[in-house]
Amino acid sequence: MLQLDSISRLPVCIITGFLGSGKTTLLNGLLQAPGLANSLVIINEFGEIGIDHLLVSTPSENMRLLSNGCLCCAVRGDLVETLADAHRRRSEATLPSFERVLVETTGLADPVPIIQTVVTDDALASYYCLDTVVALVDCVHAQAQLDSHPEAVKQAAVADLLLLTKTDLADPARVDELEARLHQLNEGAEILRVLRGAIDPRLLFGRAVLDSLASADNVERWLGAGRRAHASDDHCVHLPHSDAAHSHARHDDRVQTFTLFLDEPVSRQSLATWLTLLANFKGANLLRVKGLINVEGRPVVVQAVQTVIHEPVELAHWPTGDRRSRIVFIVRDADRAVFERSLAALAQNGSDGSASVADPRAGKGMLDPQAYARFLEMAKTLN
Fold first, then answer.
1. How far apart, in whole angstroms, are the C-alpha atoms of residue 13 and residue 201?
2. Which tens digit of pLDDT belongs to each residue from 76-130?
3. Backbone phi and psi for residue 64, each to the nearest 5 degrees, phi listed first
4. Architecture of domain 10-208
5. CA 124, CA 11: separation in Å to the nearest integer?
6. The CATH number of 250-382 is which of 3.30.1220.10, 3.40.50.300, 3.20.20.120, 3.40.50.1860?
C-alpha cells in the first residue's frame, strides 16, 4: 500500500522534445554553468550511429550513450542498467562523482516509459528520484508537429516546463498562438521562451522535488491553479467550464486538462485505494495527474503518470488557507465525467448515513463496508 514518505536521492531531469527542437543546444548551454559541472549525462538517439553525444560538452567519463533505439519500453532495461552501473561506479569512486542525472531523449521518444522506469524500478528508486520533465518546442515547426505526431503532443502534455525555442525565427503572432495552444494542452506547465538554448539553470531544476512545494507560489505554479478561475463552494466536486471546441481535427483535441475540487478530507486508505483504481482502470488514459489532497487534515501531494503512482508526500504545512483538495488531470481519450464520479466516491456518505471514507469514525486507515461498496461501484464506472 502507498506510504506517505520520501527520501533524499539523486535527481533525474528528463529533457525531451520533438526532432530538431534544440535539446542538444540546450544541454550544451546548461553544461557550461558551473553549478551543473557534476552532472551525469545520458543521451539516447534513434539510428545506427550516435552523433549527438559528440556535440555535448561534458567529460566523456560522465557520458552514457544508449544507442540501441529510442528510450521506450524496448530499451528500459538498458536505461536501468546504465543508471545502476553509474551509481555503483560512483560509490566505488571509479566514476567521477555526479550530483544529478540529465537524460536527453530522442525526438521520437515517448517520455512516459522513462518516467515509469525512474519511479518504479526497485533498484533505481533507492538512489534516484524524478525531478523536472522539460519539453522543448520548436516555434517554427511545432504547430505541424502537434497536428501530425502524437509523440509531440505527449511530450508537451507530461512536461513540468515547456521551453519555446527558435523564437527569433518565427513570426511573433505565431509564437503567441503556439503558446496559447500549449497552455490549453498542459495548463500546469510553465512556458518560457528561450533563445539559442540560453537559460538560467535555476529556472529548470527542482520543480518536481516535492519538498520545494512548501510555499504557496510553488504549489500554485505546480498545479497551474493560479491560471484557473476559482470554483464556487456550492458543491463537493467542481469543474471548470468546457474548453472551446477547435475548428479542425488534430492530435491534441483528444487531450483534456481539467481540475476537480473536493471539499471534505479523505482518509489515507481511501486515497491509496482511489489512486490504485485510477491506475488499474484508467492508466492508459492518464497522461498526468497532480494533486494537493486534504488527507485527514494534512496536505499531501500526489502525482501519477499513466499506471505509475508516485509515493504521496506530506507537506510540513498548508501553503494557503484553502484546505480543499485540488487535483489536475491531463487525460487522453477519456470522459471527464468518469473522473468526477470517481472523486465523489471518496467523500460521499453512505445512503444509510453510515460513516464516509473520510469520517474518522471508520477508523484510521480503514474502509467501512459502505465505503468499500462504493469503491466497487466506482471501479465499474472506470472499467
1. 12
2. 567 888 888 889 888 998 888 888 899 988 887 788 888 878 877 878 888 888 8
3. -130, 135
4. 3-Layer(aba) Sandwich (3.40)
5. 11
6. 3.30.1220.10
